[in-house]
Every structure is written in C-alpha cells, then in structure tokens.
Amino acid sequence: MYREEQLINRVRRRFPFTGDGLRVGIGDDAAVLRPNPGKEWVVTTDAFLENVHFLRKAHPAKVVGYKALARATSDIAAMGAHARYFFLTLGIPEACTGVWLDDFLRGMSRVASRFGLTLAGGDTTKYPKVVMSLTVMGEISRGKTILRSGAVPGDLICVSGKLGEAELGWKIIQRKLHRQKRWARLLKKHFYPQPRLALGEWLAEHRYATSMIDTSDGLSSDLNHICKATGVGAKVWSDKIPAVRVPAELRRGGLDPLNLALNGGEDYELLFTVPKKFSKHMPGKVAGIPVTIIGEITREKTIILLGPDGVKTPIEPKGWDPFQLGHGNVVPLHRN
C-alpha cells in the first residue's frame, strides 16, 4: 500500500523543478508564478477519463500519460502561445500505483521534456478508475493571442499535417487489430499526438492567422466552431484535404479516407485562416510541418464540401461530441 506522500514524491522526481518564473512549485498549498514583462497567460483545462477517452486494456500506461498532457497542450498551440507550466490532478485505483504509475509518468514526462513544460502542482487521490484533469499554462506577447473568431469572407482555410490519422488508429483498436504488428505504425497518431506549438507560435509572431483552433473534435466540427464564432460560412475543396492514407484491406472494411479526415477527432493539427493576400507568402512547411490550403471563408453561413466535379455537399459537424455516444471516436462507456 502506498501513502499519498510517497506517490507525490514519485511524481516530483519525474518532473524536475525549474525556477524560471515559478517561485513556488510542488510542496506548498499552491503554486506562485511570476509572469514575464509584456506577456499574458493563456490557460486551458482538460479532462482525461478511463472508458471515455482511453481503455486501460488497449492503451499502455505510457501512452495514457503522453496523450493526456499532449492533448491538453494542443489548446495552447491553438492560441499561438508558448507552453510553460502544467498542473495534474490524478485519481487512480490501488492496482495502478506501482508499475502502471511509473510508466504513466514516464510517458507524461516525455511530453513535458520535449515542449519545455514544468509541473507546478496538482493533487492525487484514490479512485476506482483512472481519471485526471490537466491545467496547462502558456505565455504570449500582449495582443498576439489567436482566437477562434476573426475569420472574414475571402480568408483562406489552412490546416497542418494530415487529417484522419488518429481516427484510423482508433478504428483499428475498435476492430481489435491493434496487437497485430503490421498495423502498429498506423496507431502512432492516435497514441502519440503532436501538439503543433512551433507552428502556433510562428503564426502568432508573424500575425498571419485571423482565427485558429486545433482539430481535437475533427475538421467538420472544428471548422463549424470557427464559422459560428465569427458568423461566416466556408467552402472546402475535397481534393485539397490532406487525408490519411488507408490501406486497401481497411478500405474494403469500410474505412473511407475522406470521412476519416472530415469527422475523425484527436489529430490535434492546427486549423486556421489567413488573409488571401498572404497566400503567396505562406510557406508549405513551418518547423517541418506541412501546411495545406483547403478552402475559403464565405459570407453565406453554410459550410459546403466542393468536389472536383463541382458538386456541393453540406458539411455537418459529425466529429467528437462527448454527449453523443457512438459519435466520432467516443469510447462507449460500458467498454472495459
């Protein structure tokens, strides 16, 4: 049996204290932070729950730790901020206080180390399932935060990376194919998403983006969020969407690349709009990440998919929605 203090000490050892801006960290009742001159804090919170966001039998502990922090940090990227600190509230059953916890912390520390995040505090408790809440703080120069609102008619719609890769990985798990080595590479995006912090910071620093969001819910839903925030519409060119490549065997099983790209969540790419005048200056890659122009913001308050043959199809928001079971890549609550 572990005491809470022992668990906290194990967490503390995994995440070293760094004093830049953090006056008081783990060990007191609250953290004390000092913002840098001319900067603003960007703060996000994110829940990550067993049997809702992950399955303990299908997702290794190191994946759970990695993904929990990566997905929360993606919201900082979506605002154009630089990630600085995070807080972890963790509830775990007795069975997870040994090797499982060590692997979990190892995965989470990998994200913290890669993106320069410092653990500033949190809480631990015993709970029948693995549940956690993460708060991530970023820093940005005053006035440079990129919001969902701000897109205007004529702006071009851009997206980073490929879409549908994480959803493809989840579908492979649903089909119980994830233990077969030949599909292992297709699980990477689902297991280890990459928050696009460098791209977000670049867009904020150069003031390119008029609006931005990360594709946590899926292109169809997240583009809808941008359009609703500003009261505009959009047209998306189907042949420009950088959709995941699906092996022929899985295509025959009903997995369509375009559907995965439109409605699959958890890619954590950046979806943003830029003025058309910037299109000639927009690089094809930023920090090694491909950027693709996929559409245009319109005055009409509808979102349509325009096929290469000119056929228009309405795009309905069919991505992740935690209150719509079976929608997107929601994990059914009864699964163990």
Describe the structure.
The protein is of the alpha+beta class and 336 residues long. The chain has two domains: 4-141, 60s Ribosomal Protein L30, Chain: A (2-Layer Sandwich), CATH 3.30.1330.10; 156-314, Alpha-Beta Complex (Phosphoribosyl-aminoimidazole Synthetase, Chain A, domain 2), CATH 3.90.650. It is 28% helix and 25% strand. The strands form three sheets. Strands 7, 8, 9, 10, 11, 12, 13 and 14 form an eight-stranded mixed sheet that branches. A hairpin with a 2-residue loop joins strand 11 (285-286) and strand 12. The longest helix is centred in the first third of the chain and has 17 residues, at 61-77. The radius of gyration is 20 Å and the shape is globular. The chain starts with a helix and ends in a 22-residue tail after the last strand. Residues 325-336 have low confidence and may be disordered.
Strand content range:
25-35%
Please estimate the helix content. Answer: 25-40%
Describe the main β-sheet briefly: 8 strands, mixed
Number of helices: 9
Cα end-to-end separation: 25 Å
CATH topology group of the largest domain: Phosphoribosyl-aminoimidazole Synthetase, Chain A, domain 2
The beta-strand count equals 14
Helix and strand succession? HEEEHEHEEEHHHEHEHHEEEEE
Low-confidence sequence ranges: 325-336
How is this fold's topology laid out?
Blueprint: H1 4-14, E1 22-24, E2 32-33, E3 39-49, H2 61-77, E4 82-92, H3 99-115, E5 118-126, E6 131-141, E7 156-160, H4 165-174, H5 188-191, H6 197-206, E8 211-214, H7 219-230, E9 233-237, H8 248-252, H9 257-263, E10 270-274, E11 285-286, E12 289-298, E13 303-306, E14 312-314
Parallel strand pairs: 4-5, 9-13
Antiparallel strand pairs: 1-2, 3-6, 4-6, 7-10, 7-12, 8-10, 9-12, 11-12, 13-14
Helix pairs in contact: 2-3, 2-6
